[in-house]
Design a protein that fits this description.
The chain is mostly helical and 127 residues long. Helix content is 80%, strand content 0%. It is built from 4 helices and no strands. The relative contact order is 0.15. The chain binds protoporphyrin IX containing FE.
Amino acid sequence: MKKLGHNFLMTAILYGLWGTLMGSWLVFTKQSYLSQVHAHINLLGWVTMALFGVFYHFYPKVSESMLAAIHFWVANISVLTLNIGLWMFFEQNGGGQLIRIGAVLVPLSFILFFIVMWQARDAGEAN
Ligand code: HEM
């Protein structure tokens, strides 16, 4: 996928907006039962996705591989399933199945990232 690093950064910004708006909501409504959703959207959505984006920016060859594109989609689906699931769970409205899907996809996303970065050695991009 071309411009994968930029795509990761754009989604990270959207998660960051979602996470910080949620933080403001926690402050103004004096609620805290959704603070763990707020934390996971910010750390997994904003921080982690932004880091993926920055790394892909510095490894342009491997960022165009099929595996890197799969990583992008797995990472996004993992953030969404985990956080929507957690949100439903803390609203006492189910969510267990989504959390379990997210709990599989989040580590899978890191495994994919590891393999793509390993391939960067063969592509001559790693120093
Ligand atoms: C508009 C910006 C933000 C506001 C207003 C905000 C507000 C809050 C509030 C009210 C809580 C709940 C505290 C409690 O449990 O009573 C919280 C928890 C937390 N926030 Fe934020 N936050 C913001 C941005 C961020 C960002 C950018 C990150 C990470 C990158 C972050 C990470 C966390 C973490 C890790 C917790 C602890 C969650 C827990 O222990 O359940 N926050 N924040």
